[in-house]
Design brief:
mainly alpha, 6 helices
């Protein structure tokens, strides 16, 4: 029921506003100049906007208020960690020291770019065609070699894969 009363109230206000706006131009020109008409239109607009905002606030209800929880102190727990014995760090090989990288760097810049273009054409490489050996080129050439059924375990095998791409 409250919703229908609010709709009726809004309808009445809108009707009165429309009537006021329609009546303003009908008044004699000498009594109502442009400034007076603008003033009345501004007042009517302010009343309409105010009613719309009131209706919206009434529908939305009160804004929720955030209340921060009270701070509590938690006693730290003391735990004993058993000391670990020294473990030799694992040595890894840089991809720039692999046979694939050494073989790739032995080609000219134009040949390296041609290799990258061929790998890109076949969907293995997504990087820029710059002739540089990096992670993108390394991943592309190892995937291509794997799909071809060969490995890049030696420089000779890497040369074979690269030559197959070039010639």
């Amino acid at each position: 029921m409250l919703l229908s009363v609010m709709n009726a109230k809004t309808t009445v206000i809108a009707g009165l506003t429309a009537l006021t706006i329609a009546a303003v131009p009908a008044t004699p020109a000498q009594a109502w100049g442009e400034k007076e008409q603008g003033f009345v239109a501004g007042v009517a607009t302010a009343v309409i906007v105010d009613e719309i905002l009131k209706n919206r606030r009434a529908r939305m209800g009160a804004a929720p208020v955030y209340v921060a929880p009270a701070p509590t102190y938690v006693e730290p727990r003391h735990t004993y960690v058993e000391p670990r014995t020294y473990v030799e760090p694992r040595r890894t090989t840089s991809l720039y020291a692999t046979p694939a990288a050494r073989a790739f760097q032995s080609y000219s810049a134009s040949e390296r770019k041609a290799i990258q273009r061929k790998l890109r054409a076949w969907g293995y490489y997504r990087g820029g065609i710059d002739g540089a050996f990096g992670p993108g080129t390394y991943n592309a050439i190892t995937a291509y070699a794997r799909d071809e059924g060969t490995s890049l375990s030696s420089t000779a095998k890497a040369y074979g894969v690269y030559d197959g791409l070039l010639f």
